[in-house]
Batch of 2 targets.
Target 1
Amino acid sequence: MYHPKAIVDLIAGNVRKTRNPFGAFHFVMNRWWKNLDLPRDGSTLFYTGLMVQSVPFIERITRQLEALEDTSWAPLVGYGSWIPKRLVQVGSLFMTTPKERAPYEQILKDMVALLRRSGVRFAYRPDLDLYSGILLYDLGDQEAFEAHARFVAKRLQEAGVRTLITVDPHTTYAFKVLYPKYVGAEFEVRTYFELLRLQGEPNGTRVTLHDPCFFGRYLKLSHVPRRVLRDVGVAVADVQQSGPLTHCCGGPAESVSPKLSREIVERRVDQLKQTGAPILSMCPICMGNLKKAGADVQDLASFLARRVSSSGNGQNRKDQT
Amino acid sequence: MAFVDLSFPDELERFGVSTTLDCFNCGTCAAICPLIYEHFPRQMIRYAQIGARDRILENGVELWRCLHCGLCTQTCPREANPGELILGLRRYVLHHWRRDGHVPS
């Protein structure tokens, strides 16, 4: 196990200097939207909070943390905060490959396609799509979280943003619950799947949903993706621990103890495999972690996008990207 | 030996915890917690109730094993919010580490 103070100080330093937990250039983390021609003007924003784009970075970093955990090198991780900001940023250019980023960028493109197909109007502002700071909150660095949240809220408010269409449970929780509570910033927050209006005929397809803790318990939204799947004719085979009683994927422990994280996710994957149905995830952190334990898991949005485009009943086919 | 300090639950309110004394130590949280080891989070909650700050600080690192998954909070029969209490203890411990210039080893 790494000392939490070393990890917290490293992440808080990165967020303070670069506004993301990895110390990366913003343009390096957020390039999925290029060539999509998304509208820029509007008070309703598609908002990723950079979580989906983070997964290839997390995978790279946790591979290294896992190799060093409980070795004599482990205490040196804390010195990472001494590396100059510019050097870390330049390093971020080489941290992930296009091949590693592609499946995660595709998830966001699929979400955009599904929202368009459902007739939802929204804008995207890459410059305003900022990290929520949720990891600082989870790790107990309240001061750093609130400072970052104030910065983000101010940027969004100054740009006249009123509604955020979020894509992952952690960013959703941050803007729906934490921003109003701790920095007094109120936005209307809707998760993308709450806005989906899709149709499809049943053809015997079954899936198993892994509910992330924050959708299942904290935000009580588990019924919504099940409604969307029912609308497109897909049956959900639930495992015993689902909905409000879902089992954690182990992801939250990966920065402090990759070993503990692996122990938890292996237990969860054993549960999910029991139905024999394909596994769907709704959280990029869960997806990255479930994959690490060898699960064949796909994102809900990517599954839905394939489903509606193959069923041949949709309009706006050209919007599929 | 740990010293008992009954004012500690009041101090924890500064760190966002208002339910320290609501817990009656039934252990449901420890039974349902995915960590399944050494009475987590029940033991930490008990330390908080009696104000055993030394024990909390000595074992502070363990607080970061918590996944903040919320299963304990979901199932707590007293609605004592055990998961949020652990998060508040993280804030308390981190505050003390920083104030005291604690160097991770």
Target 2
Amino acid sequence: MKGNVQIRSQNVNLYYGPAKVLKDITFDIFDHTVTALIGPSGCGKSSWLRCLNRMNDYIAGARVEGEILIDEHDIYARDTDVIALRRNVGMVFQKPNPFPMSIYDNVAYGPRLHGVRSREQLDGIVERSLRGAALWTEVKDKLTSSGIGLSGGQQQRLCIARAIATEPKILLMDEPTSALDPMATARIEELVRDLKKNFTVVIVTHNMQQAARVSDFTAFFLLGELVEYEVTTKIFTAPDDKRTEDYITGRFG
Amino acid sequence: MQELNARRQLEADLSELTRMLMRLSKMAEEALARSVWALKNQDVETARNVLDKDDALDQLTGRIDVECMNFVARFQPLGEDLRTVTSIMHMAVDLERIGDYGGNIARAAIELAGKELMKPLIDIPRMTATLSEMLEKAMSSLERREPALAREVFPLDDLVDDLEKQIMRELLLLMMERPQRIEQATLLLNVARTLERAGDHITNVAERVLYSLTGKVIRATDFRRPKER
């Protein structure tokens, strides 16, 4: 199942001021796989995810040590174009956050920002992205209506469509279904499995069954450390580390 | 990181499932031991008694199956909990089969009762005693969470196999001497073969115990002497 390394995390330490929130995180993520990050709140999984598109840059006092390589390029190198990086690394958040504009404009926002002007080209991108997010058939007749008017699950798929409209290689998802009902969750999970054909997906989830269902690999974080990173089926049936076992069986967390 | 309350119910239910399995194991063990005793002592009543108890054994197996499914539905277990509950489901099937074997032997005992035995039965009861020991080791291993005990089951199955071969050779010789013995000898051969199968099922049980305790797929063959070619 292992393919090419897409994301290489090498001895990554993250500090928020004096507090060290990530300790020596070293592992590789492979392209066209879904990797789940699990662990109790405050374990560092979301912080590490945010390192991947330099969202921690916005936090005062945040400092990253070590290297994160995406396609062998150090994203913290001086010559890194952060705008280009974020085009390449899309993100979907916990709460669906469509822009207060039409469905069409939500999806076209990113491509426009990156200079796509032709209506025809934009139409193509919007349709392809909405299809990619399994939303097209539901919204194709109301592309001009507001994205805010959609249901929660649809809004989240709109956000996924918006994230993939710039054709990123990597899609980061930070608890993308925690605000959704079971049906909407099931649709997103189905979509996630589908998305890995075209993207590398890294997903933070508190739902262990979800991690077991959608991911190929699972990384277990605890107290800022990467405790275990393995094929998902192994993590959830017979993990090597006692702490992983205790966490997945609900002994703590 | 204190123990969560949510685990209390899960652990209580899992312990109850384990207790049910141990009860099933005891019933299967008794079915074998009593049917062989009935065979040796030509005691029809004991043999009938084994057959009567077969329903209870089947019912308990069915209950374990349902309760395991309920457990999975309610707790969606992972890790060791998942390994244990799936193993219990498998082990229950093996144990039920062993119970059925007890029934088969009881039928043989009823058929043989009142007829003179061609020889005193020595090795067949020895096989049964070894099987009891194997079952007890496997179940104690599960209960006490001590993998070493389950590993001790595997070499004992070699002993069971040896006894079966010995019985076959002996009966073959006796049949060659006097063909009139063929009918009874065939029946006893079947009993020995049945007990040998029961040993294989107990070996499966021990493998499952080890998997649920360690997470490693352990093959009995790693702990047994190499097969003769």
